[in-house]
Amino acid sequence: MALIFEVARFRYAGSQRPAVHDVRVEIPAGAITALCGAAESGKSTLCALAGGFIPHFTHGLLEGAVSLGEFDSARMPHAEWLSRVGIVFQNPFTQLSGARLTVREEVAFGLENAGCPPNEMHARVAVVLEEVGLSGVAERSPYALSGGQQQLVAIASILVSDPAWMVLDEPLAQLDAAVSRRLMEVLRGRAARGVGVLIAEHNATLLAEFADTVLLLRGGTVDALGPPAEIFARDTRTSHGVHLPDAAALAADLGWNGRLPLTVAGPAWPPAGFQRAAPPALTTGPPAVEVTGLSFTYDSGQRALDGVSLTVPVGQRVALVGRNGAGKSTLARSLIGLLDPTRGSVRVGGEDVTGRAGHAARHIGYVFQNPDDQLFARRVWDEVAFGPRNLGVHGDALEAAVREALQAVGLEDVVDENPRDLDHPMRKRLALASVLAMRAPVLVLDEPTGGLDAHEHRRLARLVETLPGTAILISHDMTFCADHCERMIVLHEGRVAADGTPDEVLGDDEVCVKCGLAQPAAVALSRECGITPPVARRAGLTR
Amino acid sequence: MIYVPADTFVDRANPLTKATIVAAALLVALAEESGPRPLLIFIALMLGVAVAARVLKPLLGALARIVLPIAVSLYVLQWVLALVQGLLSRQSLGALALALLDNVDVLGLRILAFVTAVLVVLLTTHPGRLVQAAAVRGAPPGLCYALAAALQIIPATAAHARAITDAQRARGLVVGRGLWGRARALPPLIAPLLLSTLQSAEEQAMALEARGFSRRGPRTSFFEVAESPAEPLLRWAILAAAALAFAHLRGWL
User: S-S: A111 plus which of A116, A355, B245, B246, CB 3.0-4.6 Å?
Assistant: First the structure.
């Protein structure tokens, strides 16, 4: 049964501007339909409309309707609508019921409410946990899992109810490449069984492979609707702020003329036209960060780091990559002295900062993944000034540090705004500015590209390129890491599994499979062109 | 939460059975005429259960922290009352001290019996399981959800508070010494926690709705209460024995 949007406009209570308008589209069941658009283009609002949360839950003015066949979401009791349409939201933490002690019980929560017989419930939960790869943590507390695993729990909790429709709002944002692919395969399997899937997502590479249709949004309305090959045939990054699939982006950056391709294979590419560009020289110099034999075991007994040793020279751009739970965040938190390691030491700028967070802040800045964990001031200016003030910077020096940081992230025009009034990408930039203002010689960025549209992605890329000191990026975005980092350190089960240039690491199939890294399209194109060993950076290929 | 996970028969027993034991303890302890002997037997039994459940050490530690201060306070209070009533002028100091200790003995033993039983249950039962067992037995789902969610969300909120503290420490925040130093560090810690908790509450309500929590009709339970066929009988037997003991102590039998 198709999901039909007949929405003239919807605006949130207290807002003058409609969040979506003139959305008249019929989305077929038994297929995956992707919602693509820049920040504030209306993706989440359409998801809320599809789930019936507008108008049942969220206040605002709705002109129009959303229906499934003869059922109208506004006229049907919400609980009944939700028995047909399952919805997964962006924040995995708030989707946990809070009332179940194990992952298995958490996934069964919806079935309990529906009165499903216990035997059937046990069987369905076991199947879904296996499907999404959570069987190994079935008896753990959902609160003890990583953000990515919690997102899988939220998805499994809806999958298990087997609704006729599934609506997912950025489900892949916290998942590594291997898990993302697996989840898309699960969704494709559901679509093949007749389930309708509507997914708002930035990962255009997977959407190009798995989605049947892309609904391209701009300014709260549908700008284009068609198969991925049609939608991504032109560069949507500048026109719509929508990411391109990796191969299409590579083609566009290499000066492709005509319709952009979705893969690097096929006769459309002129392989003979590309060759390896001279690789950039690896930055060398005195050590900025020295990690020696670092081990860390959490109170739960989980060993997160196991004898990690590495040195990062001053000025180097390093990507720290690996699967969810590989130990990346634990290592980064140890670098800034937030964790007291079980064994080993950390030196930054020659000073031992092991377990000394307050002391480490002068030497190393850390931009956390979730900006809302740190924003507290009433003005953007005060928020940015907080860090330098803590380090004893005052007067003109403070003024200069704040102004410079705000300019670097493009927020100099909102100094008097309340940080909470900014949209999510701007809050992410503000969090970054608040750390930049501390002028630490080493900067750690935790998932800086997560949830960013193409406009923000490009802005971040420019910023990373111009950062003055040493930078360590923790990310699942291999293309971004390959293009903007000169070195890649791969963690796997708490140990360094590989350490080299992006070309060396991402050109190694064995490492990529073992550590769940998605190879950029440049690697595949290199192989098509007979370039051995392959290159991973877009700039590594030239005509 | 003081629950100590251990794979013992006490740990696996139905939480309702354990709650019944607490109810029985309360009943016996409340009987005014209960002398020290039944209370001592009950306490010895509870200590035996604690040994079997491998929680004797944490039990003794908790008892020392809870019961000892109460007993000392009671003794001091008895002295104050005795002095007010002028008992010291009628008895020698030693005789009065022993008499007061005797009073405290019985009252203290009642408290000890009750607290021991409660602690044994809490040390061997995850509170969430207790709530789930009550839900399986037909307690109102809304009430059970509220209790279970409170138990889960408190540690989760504490973890979130730690994440916020980490984010601010990474920006050089040092929690100063003394009241003023601590007070100055509060806004950057409290504001993000409060704001995100408010936002989370709305999102969580939506997520619960999405999973059919407000749906009407019969509910089922995924969680199965482990219970031997004899356990319901045991619960009734415990309650009956406690009721009989209570009636006997009150002189009704």
Answer: A116
B188 touches chain A (CB under 8 A): yes
Where are the alpha helices (H) located in A354-411, listed in sequence order?
A: 357-360, 380-390, 395-409
C-beta separation of A372 from B192 below 8 A? yes
A346 and A475 share one domain? yes
Q: Which stretch, A465-479, B39-53, B154-168, has highest mean pLDDT?
A: A465-479
The C-alpha R_g of chain A, in whole angstroms, comes to 24
Residue B37's identity, in one-letter code, is R
Sequence-separated (6 or more) residues with CB below 8 Å from residue A410: A429, A459
**Which distant-in-sequence residues (6+ apart) come within 8 Å of B23 by Cβ?**
B239, B242
Residues A293 and A235 in one domain: no
- The answer to whether A110 touches A286, Cβ cutoff 8 Å, is no
Cα–Cα distance list, A138 to A99, A108, B4, B159 (Å): 16, 11, 20, 21
pLDDT in tens, B159-174: 888 889 888 988 988 8
Give A86's contacts in chain B (Cβ within 8 Å).
210
Residues 95-114 of A with CB under 8 A from B: 95-101, 104-105, 108-114
Q: Are residues A453 and A338 in the same domain?
A: yes
**ipTM for the predicted complex:** 0.84
pLDDT band at residue A368 using 50, 70 and 90 as cut-offs: very high
Backbone angles phi, psi at A397, to 5 degrees: -60, -40
Q: In this structure, what CATH number is given to the domain that contains residue A129? A: 3.40.50.300
Task: Name the minimum distance, in Å, from the CA of B208 to any CA of chain A.
Answer: 6
Residues of A in contact with B171 (CB under 8 A): 361, 374, 386-387, 390, 434-435, 438
Percentage of chain A exceeding pLDDT 70: 99
Report yes or no on A535 lying in a domain: no
Q: How many domains does chain A have?
A: 2
Question: What does pLDDT average to over chain B?
Answer: 81
**Claim to verify: residue A161 and residue A234 sit in the same structural domain:** yes
Q: Does B213 touch chain A (CB under 8 A)?
A: yes
On whether both A72 and A214 belong to a single domain, the answer is yes
The answer, for B172 touching chain A at a CB cutoff of 8 Å, is: yes
A 29-88 → B contacts, CB under 8 A: 51, 53, 57, 78-79, 82-83, 86-87
3-state secondary structure of A426: helix
Q: What pTM does this model have?
A: 0.83
pLDDT over 60 at B34, yes or no: no
Tell me the pLDDT tens digit for each residue of B65-100. Answer: 888 888 788 777 777 777 777 666 666 767 766 676
Residue A206 in any domain: the answer is yes
Q: How far is A67 from chain B (nearest CA, A)?
A: 17
Chain A residue numbers with beta carbons less than 8 Å from the beta carbon of B132 are 101
Q: Please, which residues have CB within 8 angstroms of residue A304's CB and are 6 or more apart in sequence?
A: A296, A297, A298, A327, A330, A494
For residues A49 and A133, membership in a common domain is answered with: yes
Q: Do B213 and A113 touch (CB under 8 A)?
A: yes
pLDDT at B173: 87
Q: Is residue A265 part of a domain?
A: no
Confidence of residue B137 (pLDDT cuts 50, 70, 90): confident
* Averaged pLDDT for residues A503-523: 95
Where in the sequence is the domain holding A170, given as residue range(s)? 3-240
Residue at A343 is within a domain: yes
Query: Mean pLDDT across the stretch A411-440?
Result: 94
User: At residue B240, does pLDDT exceed 70?
Assistant: yes
Output the pLDDT for position A5. 97
Whether A158 and A28 share a structural domain: yes
Same domain, A226 and A296: no
pLDDT of residue B121: 87
Please state the φ and ψ torsions of residue A175, each to the nearest 5 degrees. -100, 145
By CA distance, what is B146's nearest residue in A? Answer: A99
> Does the CA dihedral A32-A37-A42-A48 come out positive or negative?
positive
Q: Report pLDDT for A30.
A: 97
